[in-house]
Model the fold of this input.
Amino acid sequence: MEFDFKEFTEKFDNSRKKICRDIYNENQESIKIKNEERAVENLDRIFKAVFSISSKKGFQAMSMRDLSKESGMSMGALYGYFKNKKDLLAIIQRQGRAMIKNVLDAFSIISEDPCKRLRSAIKAHIFLSELARPWFFFTFMEARNLSKAELEEVRELEAYTENILVEILLLGEEKKIFKKKNHYLTASIIKAMQQDWYLKRGKYSLRKITPDEFAESVIEFVESFCFESSA
Amino acid sequence: MEFDFKEFTEKFDNSRKKICRDIYNENQESIKIKNEERAVENLDRIFKAVFSISSKKGFQAMSMRDLSKESGMSMGALYGYFKNKKDLLAIIQRQGRAMIKNVLDAFSIISEDPCKRLRSAIKAHIFLSELARPWFFFTFMEARNLSKAELEEVRELEAYTENILVEILLLGEEKKIFKKKNHYLTASIIKAMQQDWYLKRGKYSLRKITPDEFAESVIEFVESFCFESSA
DNA sequence: GTCTATACACAGATAGAC
DNA sequence: GTCTATCTGTGTATAGAC
Done:
């Protein structure tokens, strides 16, 4: 049941267009365009432009004129796809969260062995953040611009993914494979390492570290901390 | 030579006013106010206000009207202390970097023993980021708004602090105390954990984890990864 | 040194032609 | 569906009174 970045990518590479289609279907009230194919294609252009601009200067510093230029659509056309700038942010956020939850769920139940589950959970998060890096980066950096309700959703997803790790660690402790520890702290630290991968992606690129190598390092780090010394 | 957060704090608590004085002295060209005492006091008020607002909504979303209100000074008065908004950002950045470099240097040479140096370097960074959290948070989040030259300075400081760790790890390897590893990757991971402390401070506060506890956890994590198994 | 009032640019958003 | 032109609010920055 082991998988590497290449296998992970093949499974999830078609997800970008799919996400745009989901967004179209779930936001019919605010999207004025009726032709689905055209809408999906333009949404993809818009999101690409948003990620491109806001990874440089931030979402809130991105003007609608910037977005118009980068996406090749006029201001008027853009407003056919969302109610206002805040709404655009909310749509992106909501859909990204749904995607993450689906993927991580799928990869956290593949084995009864806590060691394998730990490996799998750590790798899936890193690989996913590699494929959907603009989204991860964006969510982290723009958290301050979210509404209170949206922020609460982000916190819940954070807690949810942290809990996946905590439960694996607990299971391992019960089976006497992992040491007894403050598992919440361990999970936090694991998440901190995963987070570094998408926040400091440039640094790792320069050093030519692949997603597989990074994931292995994190896993090795965690295992040396968690395993009973017999291992 | 061991120190805890309390001892660290006592040594550096008076640094905030000192920083304002340094800033005043080093930016005489752009600061129009001639009375030093008044200037230092007002700079302190301004920086406090900047950190308070921009930790909520970001520096670039902070308007000068916001800053005027929060600091209790008028727009006109504010512009006596810096040339423009960009200049204000640069001043804060420059001074913070100087402070960090000084403190970390002071704490990275206190022993010949690589274990002690590793402990000391990790703790000093976490404690410093606790005391100057607004500054750390601010630098990280506003990196995108810096000029190219400023960004280069930030990268250099990053590389510098990472190198402190790498050298300790190398020394430990030479002395056969630490395992042979990719020390750059290990240092990156250590920095990722330290970074989490100031980026996700709210989470750790909720869980009532103290700086001392967090530092010990990080150290334990790192040691279990680095030490030769005889330890 | 600090205030109030204001200049001028640019933001988000929409109306109406095509 | 998409464009251009334009409304209105808010941004940074400064001038000039005190």
